[in-house]
Write a structure and sequence with these properties.
The chain has nine helices and no strands. It starts with 9 loop residues before the first helix and ends with a helix. Helix 6 packs across helix 8. It has 171 residues and is mainly alpha-helical.
Amino acid sequence: MAYDYKQDFPLLRAMDVAYVDNAATAQRPQCVLDAENDFYCRHNANPLRGLYPLSVEATDAYENAREAVRDFLAEHISENFTQEELSARFDFALTPMKTCFKATYGTSIGAWLTDYRMNYAAEILLREKRRNIGEIAAQVGYDNPSHFNAQFSKAVGMSPRTFRKEYVFHK
């Protein structure tokens, strides 16, 4: 038998309704309501604004979430995620996540990830001299080698093939 997801949502449990207006307001499952209630009752404070214990705790949580996003992206370099998926995965509201990331790293999440991928690809090109460039592209999250080539050329100023010739075979 299929899981009865309605039992997770108090409103759907209490009423015999089919709620389809998620564009305006999404219903929240009980576990989310419990977590929100715990936050507002025991942890509610502004991050980055004070030295009192609750603010320090909020700041630590805020910074830990940003670092978790960065570390996750680095560990899953070959995978692609939307910013909405990252926001949901880390329970970090989208706009604050993007703002915090940019304030810390000086660039957007997408630009940081592209730069990280290109630097990692350059390391592989130097270390694994005979490795196929298409394989390297896939390893750093590009299904299309031509798109990888264009991004690498934009970031490094030369194609991966030229980079490899310049820095591996002539050194």
